[in-house]
């Protein structure tokens, strides 16, 4: 997201459409990829007729009656599956040239990000990853170190200026390894901070 987005724009990009606390229901007739147990489609599907079982022999009937008197095995309930969702957004957070010092514009963007992270929809996030990215100018080692320092600078600003728990913020340096525009690796569009919210 280029420029200086508002906290509402950041919030909209980092939360699912509609109710952020629950996944949106699929439209009627739309099939989603994934696994489902006891889905409505399965419940509505007509049952296939079962093949007729052969009549049991008398000896088999006696064995079945004896086994019916044994204690039933305990049923162990399956642990609920915890669904975690991640949303990501590239922000144009500006720093001084060849430095990890935030510009005023960079601070403005982080102020808006902080407001979004404190919102009701995102306050319960487990983790917020701040990925620093660089363009391909300079050596790979230099870009890696600078991108990490810039991510750490953004993390420090959110924690000290806005009181967001440091344990919830993780800074990562990606250098120039994941350009936003692979066809133009030296373009300034590749210099960015990617925000990943793990709900």
TrEMBL record:
Electron transport found in the keyword field: no
Bias (Polar residues) ranges: 1-12
Renumbered residue ranges of the record's region Disordered: 1-65, 171-190
Biased composition (Low complexity): 13-28, 43-65
Compartments it resides in: Cell outer membrane
Primary subcellular site in the record, as a coarse category: membrane
Membrane found in the keyword field: yes
Sorted UniProt keywords: Cell outer membrane, Membrane
InterPro entries (alphabetical): Bact_OuterMem_StrucFunc (IPR050330), OMP_bac (IPR006664), OmpA-like (IPR006665), OmpA-like_sf (IPR036737)
Xref: Gene3D superfamilies: OmpA-like domain
Protein name as it appears in the record: OmpA-like domain-containing protein
PANTHER family in UniProt: LIPOPROTEIN YIAD-RELATED (PTHR30329:SF21), STATOR ELEMENT OF FLAGELLAR MOTOR COMPLEX (PTHR30329)
Coiled coil feature spans: none
Domain OmpA-like as annotated: residue spans: 82-199
Lineage summary: Bacteria, Pseudomonadati, Pseudomonadota, Betaproteobacteria, Burkholderiales
């Amino acid at each position: 997201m280029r420029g200086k987005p508002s906290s509402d724009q950041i919030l909209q990009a980092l939360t699912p459409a509609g109710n952020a606390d629950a996944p949106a229901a699929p439209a009627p007739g739309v099939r989603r990829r994934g696994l489902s147990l006891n889905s409505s489609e399965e419940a509505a599907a007509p049952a296939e007729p079962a093949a007729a079982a052969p009549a049991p022999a008398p000896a088999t009937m006696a064995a079945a009656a004896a086994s019916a008197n044994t204690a039933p095995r305990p049923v162990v309930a399956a642990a609920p599956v915890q669904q975690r969702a991640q949303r990501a957004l590239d922000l144009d957070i500006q720093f001084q040239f060849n430095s990890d010092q935030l510009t005023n514009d960079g601070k403005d963007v982080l102020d808006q990000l902080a407001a979004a992270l404190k919102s009701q929809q995102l306050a319960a996030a487990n983790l917020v990853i701040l990925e620093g990215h660089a363009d391909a100018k300079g050596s790979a080692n230099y870009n890696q170190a600078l991108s990490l320092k810039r991510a750490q600078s953004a993390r420090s600003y959110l924690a000290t200026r806005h009181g967001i728990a440091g344990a919830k913020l993780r800074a990562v340096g990606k250098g120039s390894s994941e350009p936003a525009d692979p066809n133009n690796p030296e373009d300034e569009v590749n210099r960015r901070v990617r925000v990943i919210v793990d709900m």
